[in-house]
Amino acid sequence: MRTTVRSNKAECTGCGACVSVCPKAAITMQMDEEGFLYPAVDGALCVGCDLCEKRCPAGKPMKAHTPHIVGAQHRDAQVRGVSSSGGVFTALAREMFKKGGVVFGAAFDEALRVEHVGAFDETELSALRGSKYVQSDAAEAIGHAASLLERGIPVLFSGTPCQVSGLKAKLNGKHEEHLLTMDFVCHGVPSPGVFASYLKELENRYGQRVTAYTFRDKRNGWKDFSAVATFEGGGEHAGSQTTEPFLYGFLQNLYLRPACAQCTQLRGNSHPADITIADLWGAQEVCPERDDDTGLSLVFANTQKGRKYIESCGAQLTVFPIQDTERLLRMNPCLVRPAKAHDKRAAFFKHYEKQGFDSEAVMKLLAGPGKLERIVRRIAHLPKGALRRLRALMGKA
Fold this sequence. Notes:
Blueprint: H1 17-21, E1 27-31, E2 37-41, H2 51-55, E3 68-74, H3 77-81, H4 88-98, E4 102-108, E5 114-119, H5 139-150, E6 155-158, H6 161-171, E7 179-184, H7 192-206, E8 210-217, E9 226-231, E10 236-239, H8 245-251, E11 275-279, H9 283-286, E12 297-301, H10 304-312, E13 317-321, H11 325-331, H12 345-355, H13 359-366, H14 371-380, H15 384-396
Parallel strand pairs: 4-6, 6-7, 7-11
Antiparallel strand pairs: 1-2, 3-12, 3-13, 4-5, 8-9, 9-10, 11-12
Helix pairs in contact: 5-6, 8-13
């Protein structure tokens, strides 16, 4: 009897589709020693139907599209202010609410765990805005979204490419006429356990509970975004992309999920979602007249359905053509290749398993080589003849 879904654990993306397709509710998502969620199968309940493995989307090729690529920005400055980039998600969500639909996305719960939830109206939308650089638990949300679609209720499902693939695996081609999917150019997903440990470190350091965390605060602008932790007493801990330890470690691929290094979900013209969004990095060169540093989105309408939805948002969005798509694609390398794991990833987790998240240790791991290390590296790369002469000189000294 099986105990997990995939024999090679490193292939599992953690989307949670297997949980929702199991006819005996024999699968749950359990946290491993690195803090990632993986499916665990209860052998007493499993009947060996293998549906979990058959439907698992990991490693399967994505359908190729010829996307319609545009730039976009929400017309409302307040919406842009609380969005990671240009506010396209808010526009799509509002269009879905007009149809009486439900919007799914990642949100923090009261304990600051990130999970996928459904928003039924505008009052519930704010929790779904903004990037969460932590892998969310989407297993239950996939099941809930599928149930709504079976009843004919429209759904906008936003998430990582592998989470969108997880929902499609659950649906297996059924009930998709009322479904709109949106993913984003994914850098890779960090460990939920590592993030929880970091919050605990902050609380121990400041002596207060962290009540909110923002990964893309725009107080210094869209390009120079910050990460900000807010404490129950009202104080804050803020840092930049190179000074805030968790954010810096994420951007350096220090604790991404192993499957991210071999991702096939979002490459070239292969996308699982109707719409893919990204930051319009390089805007200062490609469209400087539109770059006000409040946020611009790069939008890929991958299907005709996606294109129609973007067009329907015309009253909310300023949409403009992109002339130099090649340059913009170079500014988003994760569209072309997976994120490569940091060469000190194993060293980080060895320390993490013993002491949890340690900001000082993380910054040391990510620091460039010191003067002595640089000298040693140069010596190591000297030709053999030069090394012999150097040893001879040192011997004479």
